[in-house]
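Researcher: Can you fold this with adenosine-5'-triphosphate in place?
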Amino acid sequence: MGEASVREPDGAGAEPGVRAGDGAVIATRALTKRYRGGQLAVDGLHLTVPEGSVFGFLGPNGSGKTTTIRMLMGLIEPTSGTAHVLGRPMPRSARAVLPHVGALIEGPALYGFLSGRDNLLRYDSADPTADPRTRRVRVAAALDRVGLTAAAGKKAKAYSLGMKQRLGLAAALLQPRRLLVLDEPTNGLDPQGMREIRTLVRALASDGITVFLSSHLLDEIEQVCTHAAVMAQGRLITQGPVADLAAGARGRLAVTTPDPADAARVLKEQGVADVVVAGDRVTGEAPERDLAEVNAALVTAGVRVRGFGVERASLEDAFVALTGEGFDVAG
Amino acid sequence: MSRAEAVRRASPLWTLGLFRSELLTTFRRWRTLALLGVLAAVPVLVGIAVRIETGDGSSAGGGGGGGPAFISQITNNGLFLVFTALAATLPFFLPMAVGVVAGDALAGEANAGTLRYLLVAPAGRTRLLFTKYAAVLVFCLVATLVVAVSALATGALLFPLGDLTTISGTRIGFSEGLVRALLIALVVAASLVGVAALGLFVSTLTSSGIAAMATTVGLLITVQIVGQIPQLHAVHPYLFSHYWLSFADLMREPVHWDDLTKNLGLQALYAAVFGSAAWARFTSKDITA
Ligand SMILES: Nc1ncnc2c1ncn2[C@@H]1O[C@H](COP(=O)(O)OP(=O)(O)OP(=O)(O)O)[C@@H](O)[C@H]1O
Ligand SMILES: [Mg+2]
């Protein structure tokens, strides 16, 4: 942790000293957590989240996503390794860093006997850098942003799971933030709610806020994230721009034709590997060479082609390719 | 990025917002109100019992034999119901209520998961702990005042008010008596400082509110039992309840300060020891709930 910026006085809530560092909003080095029970939950994690990214943090159940987030938020002490958030070490600089961070960790937690609005007022007053004069206005704005204005006066124990999730998100949006850490934010939401959250995340990202989003829903990550990291059993398998990750698993060439047998033969001749015939569709691993030549070869061989193209690999393909396994909980 | 920072120019006073919010949250809990309700009912019951028992004109407690302190004087002066009610609730009802509130203070938040959101807000662990302790101390005071005010109202309704006789036999005026009653209430509230610190410490040990409350109340009962066993007299001076009933010395003329100051010193010691233990535990604890 031998960094010059470390020596900032703790507790200086609102100082301008919180810096983005070298473009990384989150940077961990060999971050490791072994719980008291002996469970190695996170193992030597090197994670770098670039500023301004929407960063998807993927992994099956129990892979250590929440544990990582707890360490980033200073809730638990790493067993070894370091974590920097907004350029400063956690958990040491928690009081300086966290006012700039909105977080949703392992689902929402609310005071059931308080109304939704009063819950937000309470969380806001816990932040010593939050101006009490603007508190009510900011709470109303946050409620509005997650579509809860109408239910704001209702006791939180009477909220549905999705409403609670929205209120948790609203708590993360009480202040202008530089980083949002959202642990499975669409959990419990209906499809409409999920879409709204995705829209919200995109809107926040376009404001320049970095969003760190954990999920085990691959298509969700694929739809909103610019970058992603994949965890399995506490280890980081890969990280990088989503496009690169998906490209890592090369796309598949797909030909639609009434002559699938001929097409399969020609494709093999053209060096296409792993050719699979399914009805009138023939697919295979896209070759390195120019696809126009492959298409020309098909036509020259008298194969009637209805459709020809490369199907982009999904993140799921990439994930399976990387882990060599399905999306199952490790024992 | 400087945009977000320009908005924040925190005032040191804002930090009190958490204390205010903590008080609101504590006193809006149904459980807190129920505890205060029970405490308010005790003087009413005592008052009615004394009234019924002395309906024939005889004095209560068989002329000063059994029962809580001052009970025999209530029929002459309703103000004595305040002293009786405090003497009756201090051994158990008051500290139990404080134990419930203190035990739940952090464990209850951990149980509900709200603790992690307070900490990422960021409330700050030390600040949150101090705020919690301050709120529990306010509860000690409010709980004591609820007993005292309820007793005063009941006493005024059921019995005559007027000048009163101190334990030393001298007479003091009613307004002087009221001041003494207030002083006694403050001393009783201060007597709960130790239990409050103990409860808060227990509260940092677990993330189950119920377990913390039960443990604190269990410790209270244990201490009270130990305090009753003569063979264990060597430890008695270190029990937080040892000097509790010394508040009666405020009704002497002149006031005997000896045990009163010992009581306050012991409470301060408990607050320091268990407060430090709670701090050491809470600031280093993994919050996974
Ligand atoms: N408080 C705890 N004490 C001991 N072990 C824990 C604790 N919390 C989590 N673990 C273990 O650490 C591992 C990682 O858990 P974690 O909650 O970080 O996974 P996750 O990736 O968030 O999973 P999910 O997708 O289900 O939320 C798991 O094996 C889990 O059993
Ligand atoms: Mg999780």
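Model: Folded with adenosine-5'-triphosphate in place. Chain A touches chain B through 50 residues (CB under 8 Å).
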